[in-house]
Automatic annotation (TrEMBL), chains A, B:
<dbReference type="InterPro" id="IPR056179">
    <property type="entry name" value="DHQS_C"/>
</dbReference>
<feature type="region of interest" description="Disordered">
    <location>
        <begin position="28"/>
        <end position="50"/>
    </location>
</feature>
<dbReference type="Pfam" id="PF24621">
    <property type="entry name" value="DHQS_C"/>
</dbReference>
<keyword id="KW-0028">Amino-acid biosynthesis</keyword>
<protein>
    <recommendedName>
        <fullName>3-dehydroquinate synthase</fullName>
        <ecNumber>4.2.3.4</ecNumber>
    </recommendedName>
</protein>
<dbReference type="InterPro" id="IPR030960">
    <property type="entry name" value="DHQS/DOIS_N"/>
</dbReference>
<comment type="pathway">
    <text>Metabolic intermediate biosynthesis; chorismate biosynthesis; chorismate from D-erythrose 4-phosphate and phosphoenolpyruvate: step 2/7.</text>
</comment>
<dbReference type="InterPro" id="IPR050071">
    <property type="entry name" value="Dehydroquinate_synthase"/>
</dbReference>
<keyword id="KW-0057">Aromatic amino acid biosynthesis</keyword>
<keyword id="KW-0520">NAD</keyword>
<feature type="domain" description="3-dehydroquinate synthase N-terminal">
    <location>
        <begin position="142"/>
        <end position="254"/>
    </location>
</feature>
<comment type="similarity">
    <text>Belongs to the sugar phosphate cyclases superfamily. Dehydroquinate synthase family.</text>
</comment>
<dbReference type="GO" id="GO:0003856">
    <property type="term" value="F:3-dehydroquinate synthase activity"/>
</dbReference>
<feature type="domain" description="3-dehydroquinate synthase C-terminal">
    <location>
        <begin position="256"/>
        <end position="393"/>
    </location>
</feature>
<feature type="compositionally biased region" description="Low complexity">
    <location>
        <begin position="28"/>
        <end position="44"/>
    </location>
</feature>
<dbReference type="InterPro" id="IPR016037">
    <property type="entry name" value="DHQ_synth_AroB"/>
</dbReference>
<dbReference type="Pfam" id="PF01761">
    <property type="entry name" value="DHQ_synthase"/>
</dbReference>
């Protein structure tokens, strides 16, 4: 028997991140349209009453570190962490602008960490961007096998091996080129190599662009659990070239959308409404729609991380759907479902639970199901995930106190 | 042919940490005696003109975190690093005072990391100190093989394995019980487990007490170099029970004295003079002499670290003798000589080089040789270390830019 959320109330009721509080305004006026990429924020959203209500959440647009006037950067989101603050550049064709990348490279030696899927697509382009009109910089690269199952100590050692064999020193820069696994591994390698060198994130999946590349969580898996070994370590910048999404398979695009939806649900009702109006544009990969969705996602995550970098409280809200979702990933074995697919089903379970607890009404639950369904994401857990399986996996994570990991 | 320092001038001249600047006052009045352990600093040293000249270097004795009145703690040295500040407790019998340790334990779960040599001597005592009149705390332990050659990723994974299998959560505390290798590995494991948990240092060798346990450098070796993978990570406290030195072999005691001598040479002339008067007391393990030597060493290191936590400049002065010393360790293979033995020979080479460069006169060089000889430390490199061997090893470290590692 597949589990229903109600069966799991006892196991999950103590999780602050498993359920939805009633923040979505019912019947709020339609407030959004696909914004122009030439604006740093969406004027139509700003003008709506609901938007003004949310304005305290709007991330600052960085006053410094702005791209040059001719740049195609549509947005810069600033992650405000004191002396560890950094910009997130978002736009189409950013890898065609060497200056943008080069201004954040420290020293003359760069190690690009990527994988067998991404290297044939973008390694040459990134190497060009790092070295164009810049003969002082030399670039090494290490190409790891692709997949969550390689997010382990043995694969991490390949990064250290390459760095040591290349005799990189403390003034080098590591560049993460790929999805979330590459970003997490490269970030942890940068945190630990010579006790810390600079690094740059170039996420190439929507999931990495809206979630894992922002916030400084890095690490690897232990055979007994995800992300148990790592560091909080912030990059010099995150460079999101939305053109890289053109090579992303549909299933992976949808997986990233699950996290985009999450931001709307936990803290940004106007953004959720915008998604309801623009899901078809996102699925059709309209550049301006993608850029806006990434921008608002990064702003939301940046705001939360700035208030709670090391997850003492607020940051746990980013884990909506992750209690059930992680259980699905663990139960199926990593790689069977994409992370976002598990989170989508987990979010529906959380919405169902919230409804049964009387925290949200039926209409909100329906909107959650509808938007995820439109994104072609799973809205029920896999048949093999029985109530007992959910219970045992979630109980283990609660015992560990690490249910909030991996966001 | 064994190398002389003069042969190495060309290779090492650019190293700021290889040579001695003329800070030792010649013919300064004898200013020191073995201090009473009931004082937080040495009154006779304070009263000397030379001491006043050095007073700006004196570390603050922590106004808070003082031990209870009945405590046998003779000294608390405060490492001032803002919100990462912590106390170093120094005294005889501190492991017989459960309160001292327990006040720094966060959460209810403790993992003691130790090795096969130290565990039979002190693990039971430390476990008692952690749990006496404190039934809420449970203690796990992991006993690693002893020696520098085990300071690697495979052995580090045993710490993570134990922590994960024991289902420790973010509120646990790691305790490093042993020498420098244990402290470095336990500290890095604490930095990386669940992206950072609390840890406490209980160093049981003089080398660890005066050097490696203070300052937050943690890490492991890569097959191609020492300490290439790690973190800057500060403990909750360092607890130095000088009674643990009673089980330390003579050679290891002398090895630690090499670093004690270093502090005198680089920044504390009165302390150096005190050592000249009291070396026989140190070698005879007189508790008050050991406690004073450890205190002044920790104060000196704490002052340097507080000014330059991540070694952008000043901290490199702590590496006097280490350019040549590391070359000896690398050339002989780790474990053939103790670290302090290599540093002693390296310090004499640095003094010789400084003399040849005209930076210090013959009498100072002689005092360096005399004090290290009295401590029964090597004052020449091993015969097998030829000029060519020194040159190639030092050149490689310079190329890497990591010549300042491992202090």
């Amino acid at each position: 028997m597949a589990a229903s959320a109600s069966s799991l109330l006892a196991a999950a009721a103590s999780s602050s991140c498993a359920a939805i509080s009633p923040r979505i305004p019912r019947g709020a006026p339609a407030a959004a349209s696909v914004p122009s990429p030439s604006h740093h924020s969406c004027p139509s959203l700003r003008a709506s009453p609901a938007r003004r209500h949310q304005s305290r959440f709007v991330a600052s647009v960085a006053p410094t570190m702005q791209p040059p006037a001719e740049s195609r950067v549509s947005t810069v989101v600033d992650v405000d962490l004191g002396d560890r603050s950094y910009p997130i550049y978002i736009g189409a064709g950013l890898l065609d602008e060497p200056d943008l990348l080069q201004r954040h490279v420290h020293g003359k030696r760069v190690l690009v960490v990527t994988n067998t899927t991404v290297a044939p697509l973008y390694l040459e382009k990134v190497t060009w961007a790092l070295t164009h009109n810049n003969r002082n910089v030399s670039v090494e690269s290490v190409i790891l096998p692709d997949g969550e199952k390689y997010k382990d100590m043995d694969t991490l050692m390949k990064v250290f091996d390459k760095a040591v064999e290349s005799r990189l020193d403390r003034r080098c820069t590591f560049v993460a080129l790929g999805g979330g696994v590459i970003g997490d591994m490269c970030g942890f390698a940068a945190a630990a190599f010579l006790r810390g060198v600079n690094f740059i994130q170039i996420p190439t999946t929507l999931m990495a662009q809206v979630d894992s590349s922002v916030g400084g969580k890095t690490g690897i898996n232990h055979p007994l659990g995800k992300n148990l070994i790592g560091a909080f370590y912030q990059p010099q910048c995150v460079l999101i070239d939305t053109d890289t999404l053109n090579t992303l398979p549909d299933r992976e695009l949808a997986s990233g959308i699950a996290e985009v939806v999450k931001y709307g649900l936990i803290r940004d009702a106007p953004f959720f409404e915008w998604q309801e109006k623009n899901m078809s544009a996102l699925l059709a990969r309209e550049p301006s729609a993608l850029a806006y969705a990434i921008k608002r996602s990064c702003e939301n995550k940046a705001e939360v991380v700035a208030q709670d970098e090391k997850e003492s409280g607020l940051r746990a809200t980013l884990n909506l759907g992750h209690t059930f979702g992680h259980a699905i990933e663990t139960g199926l074995g990593y790689g069977a479902w994409f992370h976002g697919e598990a989170i989508a089903a987990g979010t529906v379970m959380a919405a169902d639970m919230s409804h049964r607890l009387g925290w949200i009404d039926e209409s909100i639950k329906k909107r959650v199901v509808d938007i995820l369904e439109e994104a072609k994401l799973p809205i029920t857990p896999p048949e093999t995930m029985t109530v007992e399986k959910f219970k045992s996996i979630i109980a283990l994570r609660f015992y560990w106190g690490i249910r909030q990991e991996s966001t």
